[in-house]
C-alpha cells in the first residue's frame, strides 16, 4: 500500500464548471473532498456561453441561481442571429427556448453568460480545498480506495492523495481517461478553431437587435458581458502563429465597418465530438467533457456535464455515508451514458444545420439574389428548442422503480417537452406556494410528495434521509396519483417510484428506498 500525504473521501480532478459544481454539491452532503486543477487559475476565456434552464434549476437548488442571473445578460439576448456581416441586417434569427423568455415548465429561466463569469460564483459556493497548478499524473487502485499521484507544476513537487473515489472532470483532453485505458466513440476532432477576445464599440449594429451569438460567413461574434467586451471565433487560419489578430477581426467584421479592435486574448482549441466508452472504471468516474465532448453549436456541452454530476453526487454521498451500496454507482453510467450519446447526435445535427444555413446563403448570393432576401431556416424556428432534451430526460436503471411500465424511449428529434410524473423523469414543476416549486422540495434527501403526508410520515425509515411534503390535490391529479398515493423523488429531482394509491403493506417505502439504493432491506 503506497503512503499518502493526505486522505479525502472524493478527489475531483478538474476545476471547470462541472468540477466546481460537483464540489458544491458534495460539500452540501458533508463529503470531505479535494479539487485539483492543472491550470494556475480559473479560465480567463469566455468558452461556454449558455446556462440552460435545467442547469439553472440545479443552481437554484444550490442557492446560486439569482447570483448567476444578476451578472448575466438580459433575456432578450437569448437569441441567435444570422448576418452576411455583423453590420448588416439579419437574414435569419431564432430564439433560445427557455432563455429568451420564461417557460411554464420551470421555475427559472436559462441565461447567457460567459464561463469566466460563472466559474468565480461556483468557486465561492463551497469551502472545500482547491489546488491550482496541480495535475494528476498517476492512479493506483486499492481495495478501499485510489491513490492519486499529483504533480505541482509550479513547485515541481509530487504528492500522493488517497481517496475513496475519484471524479474526473478534467475536460476533453482528460489525463485520467487515457490513464484508465478508456476509449471513445464518435466522430472525434471536427477541426481547429480560434477565439479572439477583443474590445470594440459594436453597439450601433447590435444594441437594437441583441443576441447571444451573431453567425456570419466570416466567423461568429458574441457579446461577452453586459458592460462590454466581444469575442470572435472561427476556423483557425493557416500560419496562426504569425496572424495579425486585429486584422483578422477587422476583416471578419466586413468592409465598411471602420472599427478598430483591441485584441486582449487569443485561444486556439479543437472542436471535439465523442463519448467515452465507459463512465465508470473501478473507483474512478468520468463526468463532463472527460466523459463526452460535444460540438459547441446548441450550447449542450457544459450543461450535459452539470446534469452528470447532479446525477452522480447524491449516489457518491449515499455510498460514503452508508445508506447506499457501491452498486448504486453503476447506475450513473447506466443512466447518463445513453443521454450523452443522444445529446452528441443532437449537437452534431445542430452543427450540420448551421453549415446548411451558411451554404444556402452562399448559394443565394451566388445566384444574384438581393442581399436583403431572407432565407427559410431549416429547423423552422426550432433551433435551441430543445426542452425535450433538456427537461425530458428519462432514466432506465435499477435506481428507478417503474412497476409494470417503463419510461418511454426518448426520440433524438424530440424538441417538445411534455411534463410527466412517470418514474425516471424529472419531477414536473408546479407552484406549491408563491415562490416555492415542487422542485424546491428536493435537496440532500429523498422527497415523498403526497396528498396524504400523515400516513406516509409514519412509514419512513431512519436509515435514509427522507422528507415528506404535502402535494395539493390539483397537482396530484396531474401526477396521476390518488388522494393516498405518493411520488418518491430522488435527490437529483428524478422520480424514483410512484404509487397511485396507498400501498397494501406498511414496508413499501423502506423497500423502495432499499431497492433504489441497492441496500438490503431490514
Q: What is the radius of gyration computed over CA atoms, rounded to a whole number of angstroms?
A: 24 Å
Uncertain runs:
none
End-to-end CA span: 35 Å
- Which percent bin holds the helix content? 25-40%
Mean pLDDT: 91
User: Structural class of the helix and strand makeup?
Assistant: alpha+beta
Q: How can the largest sheet be summarized?
A: 8 strands, mixed
Count of β-strands: 24
> Total number of helical segments?
13
Strand content: 25-35%
Query: Which term fits the overall shape?
Result: globular
Structure overview:
Helix content is 26%, strand content 27%. The chain has 522 residues and is of the alpha+beta class. The strands form five sheets. Strands 1, 2, 7, 8, 9, 10, 16 and 17 form an eight-stranded mixed β-sheet that branches. An eight-stranded mixed β-sheet has the order 5-4-12-13-14-11-15-18, sandwiched between helices. Strands 22-21-23-24 form a four-stranded mixed β-sheet. It starts with 5 loop residues before the first strand and ends in a 6-residue tail after the last helix.
Amino acid at each position: 500500500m503506497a503512503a499518502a500525504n493526505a486522505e479525502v473521501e472524493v478527489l475531483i480532478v478538474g476545476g471547470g464548471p462541472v468540477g466546481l459544481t460537483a464540489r458544491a454539491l458534495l460539500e452540501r452532503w458533508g463529503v470531505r473532498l479535494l479539487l485539483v486543477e492543472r491550470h494556475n487559475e480559473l479560465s480567463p476565456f469566455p468558452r461556454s456561453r449558455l446556462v440552460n434552464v435545467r442547469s439553472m434549476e440545479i443552481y437554484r437548488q444550490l442557492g446560486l441561481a439569482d447570483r448567476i442571473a444578476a451578472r448575466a445578460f438580459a433575456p432578450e439576448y437569448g437569441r441567435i442571429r444570422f448576418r452576411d456581416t455583423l453590420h448588416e441586417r439579419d437574414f435569419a434569427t431564432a430564439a433560445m427556448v427557455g432563455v429568451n423568455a420564461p417557460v411554464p415548465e420551470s421555475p427559472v429561466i436559462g441565461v447567457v453568460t460567459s464561463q469566466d463569469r460563472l466559474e468565480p460564483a461556483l468557486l465561492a459556493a463551497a469551502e472545500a480545498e482547491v489546488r491550482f497548478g496541480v495535475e494528476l499524473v498517476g492512479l493506483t487502485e486499492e481495495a478501499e480506495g485510489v491513490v492519486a499521484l499529483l504533480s505541482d507544476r509550479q513547485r515541481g513537487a509530487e504528492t500522493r492523495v488517497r481517496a475513496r473515489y475519484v471524479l474526473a472532470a478534467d475536460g476533453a483532453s482528460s489525463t485520467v481517461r487515457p490513464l484508465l485505458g478508456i476509449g471513445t466513440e464518435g466522430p472525434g476532432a471536427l477541426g481547429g478553431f480560434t477565439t479572439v477576445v477583443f474590445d470594440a464599440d459594436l453597439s450601433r449594429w447590435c444594441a437594437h437587435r441583441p443576441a447571444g451569438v451573431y453567425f456570419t460567413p466570416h466567423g461568429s461574434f458574441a457579446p461577452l458581458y453586459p458592460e462590454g467586451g466581444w469575442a470572435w471565433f472561427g476556423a483557425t487560419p493557416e500560419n496562426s502563429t504569425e496572424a495579425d489578430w486585429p486584422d483578422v477581426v477587422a476583416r471578419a467584421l466586413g468592409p465598411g465597418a471602420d472599427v478598430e479592435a483591441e485584441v486582449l486574448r487569443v485561444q486556439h482549441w479543437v472542436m471535439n465530438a465523442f463519448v467515452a466508452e465507459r463512465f465508470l472504471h473501478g473507483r474512478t468516474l468520468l463526468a463532463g467533457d472527460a466523459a463526452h465532448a460535444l460540438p459547441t453549436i446548441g450550447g449542450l456541452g457544459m450543461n450535459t456535464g452539470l446534469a452528470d454530476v447532479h446525477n452522480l453526487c447524491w449516489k457518491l454521498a449515499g455510498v460514503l455515508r452508508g445508506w447506499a451500496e457501491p452498486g448504486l454507482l453503476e447506475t450513473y453510467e447506466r443512466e447518463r451514458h445513453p443521454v450523452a450519446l443522444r445529446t452528441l447526435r443532437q449537437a452534431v445535427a445542430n452543427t450540420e444545420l448551421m453549415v446548411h444555413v451558411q451554404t444556402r446563403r452562399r448559394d443565394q448570393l451566388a445566384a444574384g439574389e438581393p442581399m436583403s432576401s431572407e432565407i427559410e431556416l431549416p429547423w423552422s424556428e426550432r433551433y435551441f428548442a430543445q426542452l425535450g432534451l433538456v427537461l425530458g430526460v428519462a432514466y432506465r436503471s435499477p435506481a428507478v422503480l417503474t412497476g409494470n411500465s417503463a419510461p418511454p424511449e426518448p426520440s433524438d428529434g424530440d424538441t417538445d417537452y411534455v411534463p410527466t410524473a412517470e418514474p425516471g423523469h424529472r419531477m414536473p414543476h408546479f407552484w406549491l406556494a408563491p415562490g416555492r416549486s415542487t422542485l424546491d422540495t428536493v435537496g440532500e434527501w429523498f422527497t415523498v410528495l403526497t396528498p396524504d403526508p400523515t400516513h406516509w410520515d409514519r412509514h419512513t425509515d431512519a436509515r435514509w434521509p427522507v422528507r415528506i411534503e404535502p402535494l395539493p390535490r390539483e397537482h396530484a391529479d396531474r401526477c396521476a396519483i390518488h388522494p393516498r398515493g405518493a411520488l418518491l423523488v430522488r435527490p437529483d429531482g428524478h422520480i424514483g417510484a410512484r404509487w397511485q394509491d396507498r400501498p397494501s403493506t406498511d414496508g413499501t417505502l423502506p423497500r423502495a428506498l432499499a431497492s433504489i439504493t441497492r441496500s438490503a432491506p431490514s
